[in-house]
Amino acid sequence: MWVYVAIGGGVLLLLLICMIAYYNRFVRLEKKVEEAFSTMDIYLVKRWELVPKLVDAVKGYMGHERETLASIADLRNRPYDGMSEADKLRTNTALSGKLGRVIAVVEDYPDLKASDNFLQLSSSLYQVEDEIAQSRKYYNGTVRMFNTKAETFPGVIFAKLFGFRSKEMYEAEPLQRNDVRVNI
């Protein structure tokens, strides 16, 4: 009889240790995801602040691109601090696609390409975009680790038990995946 109680107690103790270990692992992984997002968010804010300057620099040159510039301004006029992480990811993905279109169209404006102000702003934008790309890799890597743990057995059981949900990856907009055509 005592043997069954000891075995039952041992199983319960093992289950409790397992639950604590999984909970702590999920908390550590979630903190890594938060840290990775915060790092990426610093660069997203840099770009967020650079966009109006870039739009102002190209406004006078790009008369027939007003729709693209207006859509960038519309995205940029949203209150960044009030956005959720998912909203920040979606808005910045859309902004990346629109900025790519503006940079591609600049080729048609030699005066704009030669402008010192535009050169400085575009150089800053390229640097920030590179920093975003690097931090996005880190963010997506930590999200992948978290999601793998939360979606595989037995982690899926503990994730549901403790209320941990899969995180959203920062992905490219479908238009950004298309081949770029350059006319020479």
Question: How are the elements arranged and paired?
Answer:
Blueprint: H1 2-59, H2 66-76, H3 85-105, H4 110-114, H5 116-151, H6 155-162
Summarize the structure.
The protein is mainly α.
Kindly describe this structure:
It is a single chain. The chain is mostly helical. The chain has six helices and no strands. Helix 1 packs across helix 6 and helix 2 runs antiparallel to helix 3. The longest helix is centred in the first third of the chain and has 58 residues. It is rod-shaped and about 90 Å long. The protein starts with a helix and ends in a 22-residue tail after the last helix. The C terminus is likely disordered.
